[in-house]
Design a protein that fits this description.
- The chain is of the alpha+beta class.
- 48% of the residues lie in helices and 18% in strands.
- Helix 1 packs antiparallel against helix 2, helix 3 runs parallel beside helix 5 and helix 9 packs antiparallel against helix 10.
- The longest helix has 31 residues.
């Protein structure tokens, strides 16, 4: 794929996603003129690029949809469910074509426009409320021309030809030919011969595909023409020429597209430069312990100042590089309203998706990798969690169910919460199903929290029969795997009869993570600062509850767990406690706290170690093992006693 086609595909895919969002908003608010205009502009823009790239089927689909929204804007056709459905199908067809191009298909290999799509668009343009039964297939060109004529006819009838001006040119007639149908309305107090009106309609119909390409350039002319009844000589024409040039001048580009691989390489270099600057600072601090005199003292002072400046610039480079990788989660969230709408319709349920915090920014790798997990979670919420309208009414709930998808920044993490107001999870039923499938023992998962975690086991499903939506026991397993791969954690909270909440905590940025450096059993470890609430001193003896040590912290009893025991290290004396901010808070015992640091994390790919998510280098150059966020969120996987 050449660079020009690649740029078109990227920009058009963004527009196609925005179109779906606008259409779903229009379905809720049919009188929103701003939304109607936004959809019209998006299809017009895609059509212009597709025409330049010679993508015939895409041009035809966009052109018909453009005609539909021109009719909707002008009141020639009503905003009906059929119109919304037709536009959604057109948007899906365009998105499929763009996806094929993005996957390497040549323009000539793309599928032609389906006859069913043409039919539903024509019906919507005609103002029908129900789809007409498919009868005789009409050639694409003829089908495309018919709705254009239908929409253009009122505008052409309103056009009044004033004839050639003093210079022998009919400027008004020439202008009408090059603008989209319905854009220009002439003065109503003039009369036009029927022949002229008919020829104007034919010209507008025939020129519609070409005229739409020039709509953006003629926007300034259209506004001026509506305000004046006639041209007023060569001076006025020169003014129009200047307006046309200003409207068609290319806008100043404020952004460029950069290959993600180059950004990754830049981030790695920036991170290593910060690490090198930190290590140099440590070495300089050690050198300062020696006594320098004369020229050596001057050199040391200059070296100190230079290294401080280098360290400051390295940190600025790191921050600037990180900013280039950050993207709002709204880029991901905007794909879901249509998915929920169509799946709810297939399942016979009435569901509304509410999105909040779409502006929250997170590492682009996280955004890209969260699509599949969130799709699985939404499908499960719709199929398992949300009841049918009849069931909801019978249980005293509103017939319409609500699913909320929220995102916000919390310390050095981003929280993504998916919550429904459905029937909730039954821990007893979950344990029974897991036991029947042989996934746990008869006394397994004793607490409700542990029972909820059973849904993440491979092969677990409460469905008796697998459907196209769920029931194969792979969806939620994929969710947990994807979240933990990004050094995140997921927690479930559910109330029977009231709904379920899935909370995902992820680091805002994946490569450089703020950490607390600790040591235990001779090992240097790093804990994500997002999980650290505070540090406390541990006593020699503890209260015992059920044989496990407990310590009161700010009036609340918290279990005490050994990091060495959780990781399988040898027992040692652990006198420092870290209060972990988990769904079920606890105190993590370590031998010592060695400070804090922003570490460049290198993922462990060759081996897999329970509880360890990656490695890093400290400022002293020492290898540090990074403890996983999910490992800490789950209470270090199991309850362990403090090593004395």
């Amino acid at each position: 794929m050449d660079d020009m086609l690649k740029d078109f595909v990227v920009e058009a895919m963004d527009l196609a996603v925005n179109v779906e969002e606008h259409l779903l908003r229009l379905e809720r608010d049919p009188d929103n003129k701003e939304t109607l205009n936004a959809v019209f502009r998006s299809f017009h823009t895609i059509k212009g690029g597709a025409g330049f790239m010679n993508l015939t089927a895409m041009v035809t689909a966009c052109h018909l949809t453009e005609n539909l929204f021109d009719a909707l804007r002008n009141g020639a056709a009503p905003v009906t469910p059929l119109a919304i459905e037709a536009a959604l199908q057109a948007s899906g067809f365009v998105a499929d074509q763009l996806t094929d191009l993005n996957n390497g298909a040549a323009p000539e290999q793309l599928a032609s426009m389906p006859a069913a799509l043409e039919s539903i668009l024509v019906d919507a343009i005609a103002g029908k409320t129900q789809r007409a039964p498919a009868a005789v297939a009409t050639p694409a060109v003829a089908t495309a021309a018919a709705p254009v004529a239908a929409v253009a006819a009122p505008a052409a009838a309103a056009f009044v030809a004033k004839g050639p001006g003093a210079d022998g040119l009919d400027w008004e007639a020439m202008y009408v030919v090059v603008v989209p149908p319905g854009t220009y309305q002439a003065a109503a107090n003039s009369a036009a011969p029927p022949a002229v009106a008919a020829s104007g309609a034919v010209a507008a119909t025939a020129a519609a595909p070409v005229a739409a390409e020039h709509a953006g350039s003629a926007a300034a002319l259209a506004a001026a023409a509506a305000a004046k009844h006639a041209w007023d000589g060569s001076e006025r024409r020169e003014e129009k020429v200047q307006e046309f040039r200003a409207a068609s001048a290319p806008a100043k580009e404020e952004s460029i597209r950069v290959d993600a691989v180059k950004l990754d390489a830049l981030l790695e270099v920036a991170g290593e430069s910060v690490q090198a600057a930190n290590q140099a600072a440590v070495l300089l601090e050690r050198l300062a312990q020696f006594k320098f005199e004369g020229p050596a003292a001057t050199l040391m002072a200059t070296l100190t100042e230079t290294l401080e400046r280098a360290s400051r610039y390295s940190a600025e480079l790191q921050r600037a590089t990180l900013a280039t990788r950050m993207q709002p989660v709204g880029r991901l969230f905007q794909k879901f309203p249509r998915l929920v709408r169509e799946l709810a319709r297939d399942l016979g349920k009435d569901v509304e998706l509410n999105i909040e915090g779409a502006e929250t920014e997170v590492d682009r790798v996280v955004v890209d990798s969260l699509y599949d997990p969130l799709v699985h979670m939404l499908r499960n919420a719709l199929d398992h969690g949300v009841e049918s309208p009849e069931q909801r009414v019978a249980s005293g709930k509103p017939a319409k169910a609500f699913i909320s998808l929220k995102a916000w920044q919390e310390a050095n993490s981003v929280m993504i919460v998916l919550q429904d107001d459905g029937k909730g999870m039954d821990p007893v039923a979950l344990r029974k199903k897991a036991f029947e499938k042989g996934l746990i023992s008869e006394n397994g998962a004793p607490s409700d929290e542990e029972a909820y975690q059973l849904v993440f086991l491979p092969g677990f499903s409460t469905k008796e029969l697998a459907t196209s939506v769920s029931g194969r026991g792979v969806g939620m397993d994929v969710v947990k795997t994807a979240v933990e791969k990004n050094r995140g954690a997921i927690h479930i909270d559910s109330s029977l009869g009231h709904g379920t909440k899935f909370a995902i905590r992820l680091p805002i940025e994946l490569s450089i993570v703020p950490t607390m450096l600790v040591s235990t059993s001779g090992a240097a470890l790093a804990l994500p600062m997002a999980m650290v609430e505070r540090v406390v001193e541990l006593p020699d003896t503890f209260l015992q509850v059920g044989g496990a040590p407990v310590l009161k912290d700010q009036g609340r009893p918290l279990p005490v767990r050994s990091l060495a025991s959780a990781l399988g290290y040898e027992s040692c004396s652990e006198k420092v406690g870290i209060v972990v901010s988990a769904p079920q808070p606890y105190i993590l015992a370590v031998a010592a706290v060695d400070g804090t640091a922003d570490l460049v994390i290198k993922p462990m790919t060759a081996i897999s170690v329970e509880g360890i998510t990656g490695t890093a280098r400290s400022a002293e150059g020492e290898l540090v093992l990074v403890v996983g966020l999910s490992f800490l969120m789950d209470g270090c996987r199991s309850t362990v006693k403090l090593a004395a």
